[in-house]
Write a structure and sequence with these properties.
The complex is a heterotrimer.
Chain A: E1 3-10, H1 12-23, E2 27-34, E3 37-42, E4 53-58, E5 61-66, H2 83-86, E6 90-99, E7 102-106, E8 116-121, H3 123-136, H4 144-152, E9 154-158, H5 169-172, E10 184-191, E11 194-201, H6 204-211, E12 215-217, H7 220-233, H8 245-251, H9 256-264, H10 270-274, E13 281-287, E14 293-300, E15 310-311, E16 314-315, H11 320-339, H12 349-352, H13 360-369
Parallel strand pairs in A: 2-8, 8-9, 9-10
Antiparallel strand pairs in A: 1-11, 1-12, 2-3, 4-5, 6-7, 6-14, 10-11, 13-14, 15-16
Chain B: H1 2-10, H2 19-27, E1 29-34, E2 39-41, E3 49-55, E4 58-62, E5 70-75, E6 80-81, E7 95-98, E8 102-108, H3 109-118, H4 120-146
Helix pairs in contact in B: 1-2, 3-4
Chain C: E1 15-26, E2 29-36, E3 50-55, E4 59-64, E5 75-80, H1 84-90, E6 97-104, E7 117-123, H2 131-139, E8 147-153, H3 162-169, E9 174-180, E10 190-191, E11 208-213, H4 216-228, E12 236-239, E13 255-256, E14 259-260, E15 267-269, H5 270-277
Parallel strand pairs in C: 7-8, 7-11, 8-9, 9-10, 11-12
Antiparallel strand pairs in C: 1-2, 1-6, 2-5, 3-4, 3-6, 12-15, 13-14
Classes of the chains: A alpha+beta, B alpha+beta, C alpha/beta.
């Protein structure tokens, strides 16, 4: 890390941090409790943060539970990722009006956007943002919508000090330790020394913000407690063995396990919606009732839908088997050839939010074990 | 006869056949011509010959009462026309029509199949060559069957 | 969107073109000639590239450019009416507008093929994306070796560019062979799948480059036959088709193994995608 000097902030400084960011022109987005889940939304003050809440996650199961302390970041990850702010679920690309036999394009400029401050980004989420950067900014074309949002974003990472049962970032090499891609990084510390945060900076912008807060130099005890926290988060029950995973999946394009998983998969697309790296969109035209105005919208889409692969005459991937295989093989294997890294960051959202509890780590394991019947 | 011998000996179809067998083929061979539009063979007729096309194009046709004849394949220079002489009931299954003026070498299948029965080494050599042609035509037929260029609705 | 190469027009924004001519090729296939409404727009493209064509109020879809790359005042497309958007396109009248995005994607290896024999194998509408390449080779005849064009269609009345096929055959060192899957009595040409034409081709495989476009099944058996004829996989190119929404590598619809067909294709070296072509529902 470039800016290694560490400080400590009292819990009361969190509200101040939010205030400083707002004053600097950021819209602060952070975790908050809504509809029985921790979601990312606008936060006005530290009051909006999920104090004393944690999440319990299992395949197909998510529950909020009270903690014994008043930790603000005492959960793993919620259903949403920062994707909804960087790569919005729907955005109008342009509108047009009919002019005689032809047309005129209007409103094609990228709408100016108040920059976001992302409060509480986890290591896996920073890895996911880096993956989306590669897809949307670092290829032949740059997506101006993502570019603008990404460019302006101020990122406050928060180290995980516990893992959910669905987490497997340690095995994907993306966490739990945050190691870059932030302006500020916090580690929440609760103990006899009080409720406080170890803070380090990752950019000049981060240093600027920190100077406006009442920070004191960190002690050795603070550092040790923080390290112990991250170490605790490293204890994860799930993992993917990534050794030769690309070849493994390429070689097993035909494997009975695909039929097995297809018999459970509802092709509901939940996994792709909650996945922080899935980037697919559709481009749709809408025309008003007069037929004189048209708008082009970009919306999240999913390779789990039948229409996704439609070419005249029919869809290429008609079976659930082909669609699950496409998603998982792309995510874990062809992504590496295409973008130079895995498309999976080990956040576990696809496991938790699958209505039938399909577990990607278990599916990879089953293919690796090479069972002929495809049974778990 | 000398030209016939050379043509047969140099034709890929007979490639690798030993000298005696080539001589035998030549003894069963004769030059033939068909004017454009004439039928070389007709469905149901006895099949006692096959042809090695030297010039022109031949259309293999099928017809049904309610359809105009359909050309299912064309054969041209260097290709072999006809294998029904090899197998009972020794009858043609399709029409073959000369599209242009056609020059060919006709080989006496009736004579050849008797020789093949007598000498299975010859029989195997002949069959091996015809199986290859059948395999190619079967593959082509399958691909036509798929109707790859049709619009699926 | 800003292209890395510095071209600043937004590739997501349709440019207004108007229809200048619509010519019927077959009962369901038409060739449209479009010219830009803003005269400063010059339409340069590489043979094999495609555009996204948009009909106001109907929709947008990828169509290969089928015109002469030397004529930069126009864009020409050959469109088969198979669905709502293509139907709307072929029914555009002269003077009406069409939105054009692009050109996108990779082209045929016209440069790499210089000094070598060129084998063009097309099936059905697949001749359209190859026609610009044929124009380019014929206009620079001395830069290339022999040109061999093998073309298969369903039936005689579904053959594209019949007059041009005959004209191309009159060029020196150029052989054009045409076949149909089903011929009527009036048809004096070949009947049989396109691979049967190789028997009549004067082919020298060693220095040749082959470019193949047609339905995927057809391309599978053609590439196999080209290998039989002695061409190496490195010298065979194919053009692929998948669903496309954005054409710039963002929407994910044309994902094909590790490739985006819109950006890494549509023209691929056969060696790149050989293993993918054989996979069902990839």
């Amino acid at each position: 890390m470039a800016h290694r000097s560490e400080h400590v902030l009292g819990v009361d400084q969190l509200g101040k941090l939010i205030g400083v960011l707002a004053r600097k022109g950021y819209e602060v987005i952070g975790p908050t409790v809504r509809d029985g889940a921790i979601v990312y939304d606008h936060v006005e003050s530290a009051e909006d943060l999920p104090a004393g809440w944690t999440d319990e996650q299992e395949p197909g199961r998510y529950r909020l539970k009270r903690r014994e302390d008043m930790a603000l970041f005492g959960y793993a990850v919620g259903p949403q990722s920062w994707k909804k702010y960087m790569h919005p679920a729907e955005v109008r690309l342009w509108s047009a009006e009919r002019q005689g036999g032809t047309f005129r394009i209007l409103n094609n400029e990228v709408k100016p956007q108040r920059p976001h401050a992302l409060l509480g980004a986890r290591a896996c989420e920073l890895a996911a943002i880096a993956v989306q950067d590669r897809v949307l900014l670092e290829d032949k074309y740059r997506d101006p919508i993502y570019d603008q949002r990404r460019e302006g974003a101020f990122i406050i990472a928060v180290q995980c000090t516990q893992a959910a049962a669905t987490c497997f970032c340690a095995s994907m090499g993306t966490g739990p330790q945050v190691s870059g891609g932030f302006d500020l990084v916090l580690t929440e510390l609760i103990g006899p020394e009080g409720h406080r945060f170890l803070v380090a900076t990752g950019s000049d912008r981060g240093v600027e913000v920190l100077t406006e807060l009442e920070a004191v130099p960190a002690t050795e005890e603070d550092r040790q407690q923080a390290e112990a926290g991250v170490e605790a988060a490293r204890q994860q029950v799930r993992s993917i063995d990534t050794t030769g995973i690309k070849e493994l999946l390429y070689k097993n394009f035909e494997h009975p396990r695909w039929d097995n998983v297809a018999s459970r998969c509802l092709t509901c697309a939940n996994c792709t919606m909650v996945c922080p790296t899935c980037f697919c969109t559709s481009v749709e035209d809408v025309t008003d009732i007069t037929g004189d105005h048209a708008e082009r919208w970009r919306r999240w889409d999913s390779c789990f839908t039948q229409s996704f692969s439609y070419i005249h005459g029919g869809s290429v991937r008609t079976s659930a088997k082909a669609r699950y295989r496409q998603w998982m093989t792309h995510k874990l294997a062809s992504w590496i050839d295409q973008f130079g890294s895995s498309g999976c960051v080990g956040c576990g959202r696809c496991i938790t939010w699958c209505p039938v509890g399909i577990d990607i780590t278990e599916e990879v394991g089953a293919i690796r074990d090479g069972g002929k019947d495809g049974n778990p | 006869m000398e030209t016939l011998e050379r043509i047969i000996a140099e034709h890929p179809f007979f490639h690798g056949l030993d000298k005696d067998f080539i001589a035998l083929m030549v003894s069963c061979a004769s030059n033939v011509r068909f004017e454009a539009g004439t039928y070389i063979l007709k469905e149901g007729d006895p099949a006692n010959t096959f042809y090695l096309i030297r010039e022109g194009k031949v259309a293999v046709e099928v017809f049904a009462p309610q359809h105009k004849p359909i050309i299912v394949a064309t054969l041209s220079v260097g290709e072999i026309l006809g294998w029904s002489w090899l197998l009972p009931p020794f009858q043609w299954k399709f029409h073959a029509r000369a599209v242009d003026d056609v020059r060919a070498i006709a080989l006496d299948g009736k004579c050849l199949r008797t020789k093949c029965e007598e000498n299975h080494d010859l029989g195997y050599e002949v069959l091996k060559r015809f199986v290859q042609i059948m395999e190619q035509r079967l593959e082509a037929t399958r691909l036509q069957l798929i109707d790859v260029y049709a619009v699926k609705r | 969107m800003i292209m890395a190469t510095g071209i600043t027009t937004d590739p997501m924004l349709p440019q207004p073109y108007s229809v200048r001519d619509v010519a019927k090729e077959t009962p369901d296939t038409f060739t449209l000639r479009l010219e830009p409404e803003i005269a400063v727009n010059r339409s340069s493209f590489q043979p094999g590239q495609f555009s996204m064509l948009w009909v106001f109020g109907v929709g947008e879809l990828p169509i290969s450019i089928s015109g002469d790359p030397a004529l930069q005042d126009r864009l020409v497309y050959t469109v088969r009416s198979v669905g709502q958007a293509t139907h709307a396109l072929v029914n555009r009248r002269v003077g009406e507008g069409v939105g054009v995005r692009g050109p996108f994607g990779t082209g045929w290896p016209a440069e790499a093929a210089r000094g070598r024999d060129v084998i063009v194998v097309a099936g059905g509408i697949g001749l359209a994306p190859l026609r610009p390449l044929i124009y380019q080779v014929l206009q620079n005849r001395d830069d290339y070796g022999r040109l061999l064009i093998l073309y298969g269609a369903r039936s005689p009345r579904e053959l594209l560019y019949r007059k041009e096929l005959a004209a191309w055959a009159r060029n020196r060192e150029t052989q054009v062979l045409v076949t149909v899957d089903y011929g009527g009595l009036g048809w004096r040409g070949h009947v049989g799948v396109v691979t049967t034409l190789f028997k009549y081709a004067r082919l020298q495989p060693a220095p040749a480059v082959a470019m193949v476009c047609g339905p995927e099944i057809m391309m599978r058996f053609v590439t196999r036959e080209l290998e039989n004829q002695g061409l190496s996989r490195d010298n065979i190119y194919v053009s692929m088709e998948r669903n496309m929404k954005c054409a710039v590598g963002f929407c994910g619809h044309c994902q094909y193994g590790p490739h985006f067909i819109c950006k890494d294709g549509p023209v691929f070296r056969y060696e790149q995608i050989r293993n993918l072509l054989e996979k069902y529902e990839l």
